[in-house]
Amino acid sequence: MTEDEMYEAVVNNDGNYDGLFFYAVKSTGIFCRPSCQSKKPLRENVRFFKNAADAKAAGFRPCKRCRSDLLSYRPMEKIAELVKQHLDDLYEQQSTWNDGLRELGLSQRRVVEVFKTAYGMTPKAYMDALKLKEAKRLLTETDDHVINIAASVGFGSLATFNRFFKEQMGCSPVQYRKANRGNQV
Ligand SMILES: [Zn+2]
Asked: Which of 25, 95, 112, 128 lies 20 to 30 Å (CA to CA) from residue 11?
C-alpha cells in the first residue's frame, strides 16, 4: 500500500481500510482509523502507522471519536450488525441494551451513526419497529391484557405504551385490537 493510497483512504473516510493502517496528525497529536469522520488533515501533517501501538509509541494519542485505541479490528458494518443482533435479542430490555453498547466500547452517538449508515434508520427507530410489530401480534393473536402486552414489549407503564402506539398507528391498542379482530372473524 502506498502512502498516496492511504491518504486517499483517509480523505474518503474509507472504512475498508480500517485495521489495515492508522494515521496520525502532527498538528493535533492524535491518531485515527482511516474511516474517522474528523477533519481532513493536510497531507504534510499526516504520518502513517501499521498499528495503534506504533502510533502510541511515536507519542500520538488515540482519537476519542473513532476509538483508534481499541485493540480489535471491527469494521463498521460488523459493529452495525452486532448492534442489530443486540436489538433483535434485547429490544424489550432497554437497560441491558445500554450495557451491551458499553461492551462494544463505542459511544452511543457513534453507534447511532454507524447503525444509520448501515440500515438507514436509528437504533431507536429500529427498536420501536420491533416493539410495534410484537405488540400488534400480541394484540391480535392473544387475549392478553393490554397492560401485560405493554410490559412484555418493554414499556414501564400503560400510558407510555398507549402514547407510543397511538403515535405509530394513529389509534389506541384497544381500538387496533377491535378493528383487527373484527376483520378476522
Ligand atoms: Zn479519529
From this structure: 112
pTM attached to this predicted model: 0.55
Starting at the edge strand that comes first in sequence, how are the strands of the sheet with 46-49 ordered? 46-49, 22-25, 30-32, 61-62
d(CA 171, CA 177): 10
CATH, residue 13? 3.40.10.10
Q: Residue 18 belongs to what domain range? A: 3-62
Q: How far is the CA of 105 from the centre of ligand 1 (A)?
A: 14
104 and 135 housed in the same domain: no
Upper half-sphere CA count for residue 38 (Cβ side, 13 Å): 19
Cα of 175 vs centre of ligand 1, distance in Å, is: 50
Categorize the per-residue pLDDT at 90 as very low, low, confident or very high, splitting at 50, 70 and 90.
confident
Active-site annotation, residues: 32, 36, 63, 66
Asked whether the predicted pLDDT for residue 170 surpasses 60, the reply is yes
